[in-house]
User: Which sequence fits this backbone?
């Protein structure tokens, strides 16, 4: 590798030559060596890097001695939105050298699996990058290649910088890289990632704002496409041939409601006959299984455009499961959402689907077993919490803060929705868009202004959690009030 990974070539772990502060480099290198050897107590490492190391070591089991990225699988399917983003990022990548001051590096575009599709740079940099397989048709996801600009950006909702020994794999320590993922504005799934890498030289401070601007501009175009798709999805309700009075809703691929008639709105807990075209304005249904059902149905429709299906969903409002018929809605060859007709007899599916469809008629998979401990972060230390120690969780954008018997800690799990799924069988209930509460730790319930509710989880400190009005009925039901 031209000396790139030779520990004898100018310093330990091949990190000399990277223009970082010497003390910081030594601290990070020492922390990496201890963490790779199994030590959890390390100092001087940024939280986002430490979380990535934890995933690489505990979840993905990536070899820290890896020197080259593995070859990508040839089987990788992309949607039209992916292709639109690839083309957009490819055009922007060619301007990186003029947009980012002093850039002497390689610019890559990768798909949501971390597979590099194209790269740009000088002949010298491209040659150096080839030694690490930083080139098309190699995989740079975290699960394959550890902490790196592309893979870690795919795990994050903001631009990420990875410097020298912050890379999980020793062979990539000579590199400094920065990446940002462009995400589907409806499902928040990554569509592509843009990355800039430099060999043994720092990246300009301009690179992260530039990447953030690129992602925002690309997602703005996707947002307009999603608005148009929402309008088409809502319009498809008028073309649905269902018996009068059938509860009918148009749902996007993430399970959010774009439009529901008055009968369906009662079941879903959403406004009736009120279209929500923009992704940010769409309604969250009060059916916990609907997002999973929508994702499974969209995936099936992508495999078979003529598919329709029937299953059952539990409706908390009724306290019983009811049948639902599902039909995909397309814009050209792209699945933009689903029509769902509720309460129809299984032997007369309104969309002509088969009630014996193996995907949707089968019972949903059991909830994922949550580990005995919840992983949180205090400074540079991991804290392993018993779920019973957590009184409530509070979202701050994509960060989640845990108020626990061991203090206020940053959760290793990013996103309150993800933490809610992990704790769904541990006695936790979502009571607000920003709050998840441990029902077993509620000590008092206060009535606030105009009938609002406040949950007291520590009467001595007067620690309270607000309850959103639309969540109040589910709280009363859970507490038997």
Assistant:
């Amino acid at each position: 590798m031209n000396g790139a990974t030779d520990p004898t070539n100018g310093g330990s772990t091949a990190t000399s030559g990277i223009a970082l502060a010497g003390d910081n480099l030594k601290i990070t290198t020492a922390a990496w060596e201890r963490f790779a050897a199994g030590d959890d107590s390390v100092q001087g490492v940024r939280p986002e890097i430490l979380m990535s190391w934890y995933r690489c070591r505990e979840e993905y089991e990536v070899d820290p001695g890896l020197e080259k990225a593995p070859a990508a699988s040839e089987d990788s399917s992309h949607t039209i939105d992916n292709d639109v983003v690839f083309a957009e990022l490819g055009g922007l990548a060619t301007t990186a050298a003029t947009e980012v001051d002093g850039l002497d590096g390689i610019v890559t575009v990768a798909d949501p699996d971390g597979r590099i599709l194209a790269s740009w740079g000088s002949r010298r940099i491209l040659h150096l990058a080839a030694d690490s397989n930083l080139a098309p048709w190699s995989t740079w996801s975290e699960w394959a290649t550890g902490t790196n600009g592309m893979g870690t950006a795919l795990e994050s909702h903001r631009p990420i910088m990875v410097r020298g020994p912050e890379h999980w794999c020793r062979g990539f320590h000579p590199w400094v890289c920065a990446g940002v993922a462009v995400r589907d504005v409806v499902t928040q799934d990554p569509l592509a990632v843009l990355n800039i890498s430099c060999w043994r030289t720092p990246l300009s401070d301009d690179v992260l704002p530039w990447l953030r601007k690129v992602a925002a501009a690309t997602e703005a175009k996707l947002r307009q496409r999603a608005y148009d798709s929402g309008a088409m999805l809502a319009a498809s309700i008028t073309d649905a041939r269902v018996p009068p009075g059938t509860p009918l809703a148009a749902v996007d691929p993430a399970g959010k409601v774009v439009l529901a008639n008055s009968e369906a709105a009662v079941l879903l807990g959403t406004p009736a006959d009120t279209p929500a075209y923009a992704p940010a304005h769409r309604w969250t249904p009060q059916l916990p299984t609907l997002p999973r059902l929508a994702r499974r149905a969209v995936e099936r429709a992508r495999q078979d455009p003529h598919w329709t299906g029937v299953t059952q969903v539990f409706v908390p409002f009724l306290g019983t499961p009811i049948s639902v018929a599902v039909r995909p809605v397309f814009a050209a060859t792209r699945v933009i959402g689903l029509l769902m007709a509720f309460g129809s007899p299984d032997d007369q599916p309104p969309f002509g689907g088969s009630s014996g469809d193996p995907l949707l008629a089968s019972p949903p998979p059991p909830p994922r077993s949550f580990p005995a401990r919840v992983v949180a972060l205090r400074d540079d230390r991991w804290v392993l919490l018993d779920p019973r120690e957590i009184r409530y969780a509070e979202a701050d954008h994509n960060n989640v803060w845990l108020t626990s018997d061991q203090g206020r800690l940053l959760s290793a799990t990013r996103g309150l929705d993800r933490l809610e799924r992990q704790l769904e069988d541990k006695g936790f209930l979502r009571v607000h868009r920003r709050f998840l509460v441990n029902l077993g730790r509620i000590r008092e319930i206060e009535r606030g202004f105009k009938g609002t509710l406040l949950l007291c989880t520590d009467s001595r400190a007067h620690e309270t959690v607000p309850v959103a009005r639309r969540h109040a009925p589910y709280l009363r039901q859970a507490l038997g009030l």
In short: Confidence is low (pLDDT under 50) at residues 1-20, 355-371. The longest strand covers residues 320-331. DSSP finds 13 helices and 20 strands in the chain.
